[in-house]
Amino acid sequence: SSIPMPVAMWDFKHCDPKRCSGVKLSRCNMLKTLKTSQRFRGIVASPVGEKAVSPADRRIVELYGAGVVDCSWARIDEVPFSKIRGPTDRLLPYLVATNPVNYGKPWKLNCAEALAAIFYITGYPEHGEALLAKFKWGHAFKKVNGGLLSRYAKCKDSAEVVQVQNDYLKQLEEDSERKEENT
């Protein structure tokens, strides 16, 4: 891999391996698949995180890398989070998926997009781009989310990332209301 820090995934095999971005990244030697019992000290994109990933996590990513829990939101209760949960689990802020399965859907990122988001937000955009370059649609992620990723990357900590996200969502809501009033 061209990425000098560990990139990892716990794969709970909830999705079609032919369409799974994590499986493809593993085949391309861009990430390591972990067993449920294996610990990972890097930042992990996980639905059980209590804080949003932020630039404050940069040093952890630099030293220990980035990881993701590959599971389906529809089967989240089947994932043994108690066995893989760690102090570096993080939530991802609002971003829009550009993968073919969930294109245009907010919060529905696949593994490659989630890992890329961690790298972009923590100041390693080149690593995010290296991961996304393995996919035909990969360029679209930055095109669609570039403005938000840039704003998140300028934040100080998780609280600021959440504030930027909430301000953005409020603006989207206001824009939508204005459009409805004008029709």
Automatic annotation (TrEMBL):
Listed InterPro entries: RNaseL-inhib-like_metal-bd_dom, Tsr3-like, Tsr3_C
Transmembrane segments: none
Assigned keywords, A-Z: Cytoplasm, Ribosome biogenesis, rRNA processing, S-adenosyl-L-methionine, Transferase
GO MF term list: rRNA small subunit aminocarboxypropyltransferase activity
Organism: Phycomyces blakesleeanus (strain ATCC 8743b / DSM 1359 / FGSC 10004 / NBRC 33097 / NRRL 1555)
Protein name, UniProt field: 16S/18S rRNA aminocarboxypropyltransferase Tsr3 C-terminal domain-containing protein
Any one Pfam family match given in the protein's UniProt record, by short name: Ribo_biogen_C
The keyword tRNA processing belongs to this UniProt entry's keyword annotation: no
Domain 16S/18S rRNA aminocarboxypropyltransferase Tsr3 C-terminal: 43-169
Domain RNase L inhibitor RLI-like possible metal-binding: 5-39
PANTHER family: 18S RRNA AMINOCARBOXYPROPYLTRANSFERASE, RIBOSOME BIOGENESIS PROTEIN TSR3 HOMOLOG
One GO BP annotation of this record: maturation of SSU-rRNA
